[in-house]
C-alpha cells in the first residue's frame, strides 16, 4: 500500500482563492483587512517566515505592515508598539513573530495583544475559548491540520488521535481541536514511556516533535492517517518528523514535508485576519 498524500500546497492555493474573493467583498463594503507583523531582531528563519506571511497577504489583497525593531528593543518599547496597534483602526490582526530576544517575556507580549486582534490564537482568552468550544481565533498550525483532515474527508469523531508533542503552539491545541471534534485523544511527550505501543494505536497520528524522521513505520498502525507537522533542515534539505519513505508504505494518508501542513499555516493566518476584519 502507498499512502494518499495530503497536498497542503494545492489545498492552500484553493483556500487562498476563496479568501481572495472574501477580501474583494469586504473591500466593496469599504473594509480592507489589515495585518501588522512585528519582527524583533534579525533571526534568519523568522525573517523568512515574516516575508512569506507578507507576500501571502499581498497576494490576496490584505493590507500588511511590517514593524521591524532592533534586537535591543526593551519589553516596554514592544508593549507600547502593541498598544499603538491595538488602537489602530486600520489594523485587524497583530502578530509578533516568535522567538523574542531574551530580555522580553513572550507571555507578557502575547497577553498585551487585544484578543479581538489575536490572529495567532495564542492569547489566554483565545486558548480558553477554544478549550470550552466557543468561537475564537484558532492557532494557525492546528487549525490548518483540522482543515486538511476535513477536506480529505477523514472522519475524526470516535477515532483515537495520538499527538506526539505538547507545545503550546502545536501539540496541546491540535489535541484540543481533535477533542472538540469528538476524537479520543492521547498526548505523548519526552517523558512518555512505551511511545511505540501508544502511537501504534492511533487511527490519526499527529507528530510535532522537531526531530527529523523521528517517527518511522514501526510506530504506525496499518491504515493510519499520519500528519507530519515537523520542519527540520538536514544537509540543507527540509524534512519532517516522520520518515516519509517507510511510513508511506503503511499509512492510508500522509502529509509530505515540504508541501503539507506548512502552507496551510499561513493560509489560516489569512483566514483569521479576514475574520477579525469582519468582526
Ligand atoms: P517544541 O520544541 O516546542 O515541542 C516539541 C515537543 O516534542 C515537546 O512537547 C517535547 O516534549 C516533545 N518531544 C521531544 N522529544 C521527544 C521524544 N523523544 N519523544 C516524544 N516527544 C518528544 O516544538 P513545536 O511544537 O514548536 O514544533 C514542533 C515541530 O513542528 C518543529 O519541527 C517545528 O519546526 C514544526 N512547526 C511547524 C509549523 C508548520 O507550520 N508546519 C509551525 C510550528 C512548528 P516535552 O514537552 O516533554 O519537552
TrEMBL record:
GO terms for biological process: L-histidine biosynthetic process; methionine biosynthetic process; purine nucleotide biosynthetic process; tetrahydrofolate interconversion. Pathway: One-carbon metabolism; tetrahydrofolate interconversion. Keywords: Amino-acid biosynthesis, Histidine biosynthesis, Hydrolase, Methionine biosynthesis, Multifunctional enzyme, NADP, One-carbon metabolism, Oxidoreductase, Purine biosynthesis. Residues 139-278 form the Tetrahydrofolate dehydrogenase/cyclohydrolase NAD(P)-binding domain. Belongs to the tetrahydrofolate dehydrogenase/cyclohydrolase family. Catalyzes the oxidation of 5,10-methylenetetrahydrofolate to 5,10-methenyltetrahydrofolate and then the hydrolysis of 5,10-methenyltetrahydrofolate to 10-formyltetrahydrofolate. This is Bifunctional protein FolD. The lineage of its organism: Bacteria, Bacillati, Bacillota, Bacilli, Bacillales.
Amino acid at each position: 500500500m502507498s499512502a494518499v498524500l495530503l497536498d497542503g500546497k494545492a489545498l492552500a492555493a484553493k483556500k487562498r482563492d476563496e479568501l481572495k474573493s472574501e477580501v474583494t467583498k469586504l473591500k466593496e463594503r469599504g473594509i480592507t483587512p489589515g495585518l501588522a507583523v512585528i519582527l524583533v531582531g534579525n533571526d534568519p528563519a523568522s525573517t523568512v517566515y515574516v516575508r512569506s506571511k507578507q507576500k501571502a497577504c499581498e497576494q490576496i489583497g490584505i493590507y500588511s505592515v511590517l514593524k521591524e525593531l532592533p534586537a535591543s528593543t526593551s519589553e516596554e518599547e514592544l508593549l507600547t508598539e502593541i498598544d499603538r496597534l491595538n488602537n489602530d483602526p486600520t489594523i485587524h490582526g497583530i502578530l509578533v513573530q516568535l522567538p523574542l530576544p531574551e530580555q522580553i517575556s513572550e507571555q507578557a507580549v502575547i497577553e498585551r495583544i487585544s484578543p479581538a486582534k489575536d490572529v495567532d490564537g495564542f492569547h489566554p482568552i483565545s486558548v480558553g475559548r477554544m478549550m470550552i468550544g466557543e468561537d475564537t481565533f484558532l492557532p494557525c498550525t492546528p487549525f490548518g491540520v483540522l482543515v486538511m483532515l476535513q477536506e480529505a474527508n477523514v472522519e475524526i469523531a470516535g477515532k483515537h488521535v495520538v499527538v506526539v508533542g505538547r507545545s503550546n503552539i502545536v501539540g496541546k491545541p491540535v489535541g484540543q481541536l481533535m477533542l472538540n471534534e469528538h476524537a479520543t485523544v492521547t498526548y505523548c511527550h519526552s517523558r512518555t514511556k512505551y511511545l511505540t505501543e501508544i502511537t501504534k494505536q492511533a487511527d490519526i497520528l499527529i507528530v510535532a516533535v522537531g526531530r527529523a524522521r523521528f517517527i518511522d513505520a514501526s510506530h504506525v498502525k496499518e491504515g493510519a492517517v499520519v500528519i507530519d507537522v515537523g520542519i527540520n533542515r538536514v544537509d540543507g534539505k527540509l524534512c519532517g518528523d516522520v520518515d516519509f519513505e517507510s511510513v508511506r508504505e503503511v499509512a492510508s494518508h500522509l502529509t509530505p514535508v515540504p508541501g503539507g501542513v506548512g502552507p496551510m499555516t499561513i493560509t489560516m493566518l489569512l483566514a483569521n485576519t479576514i475574520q477579525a476584519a469582519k468582526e
